[in-house]
Amino acid sequence: MTVTADDLDAALTTVADALGPAVGADWTVPAGPLDWDCRHTADHLGDTLLSYAAQLVARPADRYVRFMAAAERDATAAELLEFAATAGRILALVVRATSAHARAFHPSGTADPEGFVAMGCAELLLHGDDIARGLGMALDPPRPLCARVVARLFPDVAAGLADVDPWVALRWCTGRAELPGRARRGRWQWRGAPIGG
Fold first, then answer.
1. Within a 10 A sphere around the Cβ of 94, how many other Cβ atoms?
2. pTM of the shown model
3. Is 68 exposed, middle or buried (0-12, 13-18, 19+ CB in 10 A)?
4. Does residue 114 come out as left (phi exceeding 0), alpha (psi in the -120 to 50 range) or beta?
5. Residue 179 and residue 29: Cα distance in Å, rounded?
6. Cα–Cα distances in Å, from 3 out to 82, 159, 182?
7. CB 103 within 8 A of CB 110
């Protein structure tokens, strides 16, 4: 299983379709279980996705590229969503233009383009869902996409989750959901480094 820039496009569409109708709502409410509000969570998405793109462009071996991106303080919810979507599209473009053999620093392991795009998908889906839950909504992402993200980022537990709804599995892997017979994950780390290499 591989995660591609097309998957990132699908994650972007899922989040935009779910949150677009709610841009008139109050985004200062908490984003689901997070300590952040919906505005900060959307801003975090934009910064994180741009950061992943920058890593693949600069390819530092031992640190993040030293910048922070942020939406303007008076950005509307629609503009925050646009910022996150733009950052995701930039990451998709960079992944498409980068050799599969490229590597760059990430705390979860020196990552390849597939690792960064998988992490981008996870960030979008999970934080998109956090925002949706804060606004009284829910995200319903494509299950094959979720399965690919779980397989790529959580290879240590993926095989044992084959019988679980992939969206629930992704949420469980990141401590956001409970599964019968399995302890809730309080501490977790995904794998950015290529599997088997």
1. 21
2. 0.96
3. exposed
4. alpha
5. 27
6. 23, 17, 26
7. yes
- Residues 6+ positions from 106 with CB-CB distance below 8 Å: 55, 115, 116, 119, 192, 193
Q: How far apart are the first and last CA of the chain?
A: 15
Helix, strand, or coil (residue 149)? helix
- Over residues 157-190, the pLDDT tens digits come to 999 999 999 999 999 999 999 998 888 888 899 9
Comparing C-alpha atoms, which of 112, 93, 91 is closest to residue 102?
112
User: Do 31 and 38 form a contact (C-beta atoms < 8 A)?
Assistant: yes
Task: Summarize pLDDT for 29-87 with one digit per residue, the tens.
Answer: 999 999 999 999 999 999 999 999 999 999 999 999 999 999 999 999 999 999 999 99
**Cα four-point dihedral sign 124, 20, 17, 164:** positive
Cα–Cα distance, 45 to 179 (Å, whole number): 27
Element (H, E) at 87: helix 77-97
What whole-number distance in Å separates Cα of residue 5 and Cα of residue 169?
A: 21
Nearest in space to 20 (alpha carbons), one of 32, 9, 12:
12
Are 137 and 18 spatial neighbours (Cβ–Cβ below 8 Å)?
A: yes
Torsion angles phi and psi, residue 104, rounded to 5: -150, 160
Contact 169, 146 (CB under 8 A): yes
